[in-house]
Amino acid sequence: MPERCLHDGFDRPYVLDSQSGAWWTRDTKGDGGSVFKRYHLEGNALVHVADVDEAGNDMTGKHKGPVGKTVPVAGLHGCSFPGSHLS
Question: CA quadruple 67, 71, 75, 78: dihedral positive or negative?
Fold first, then answer.
């Protein structure tokens, strides 16, 4: 269940899953079959954990470049409708 949502400067939502503590965003590039990206909060940044396929499985061995590997929370702004982004 979405608990919190933050947006970046491109209005890309990062949604916090209240049960797992993971942050999720849609993979807008979608290369290699990735549908979502999963992050965890580490200090003041969201750190990329895995690209996730359509079935919800981590895509192991998929290369992740430096862009989007770490997303500073200070550069994100709040959202009033976290449940509307990942449904």
Answer: positive
Residues 25-84 have pLDDT tens digits of 988 876 778 899 999 999 999 999 999 999 989 988 776 666 668 999 998 988 877 777
Q: What is the 3-state secondary structure (H, E, C) of 36-70?
A: EEEEEEECCEEEEEEEECCCCCECCCCCCCCCCCE
The continuous run of DSSP H or E covering 76 comes out as none
Distance of alpha carbon 72 from alpha carbon 53, whole angstroms: 24
* Residues 46, 75: Cα–Cα separation, whole Å: 11
Distance of CA 11 to the CA centre of its chain: 13
pTM equals: 0.83
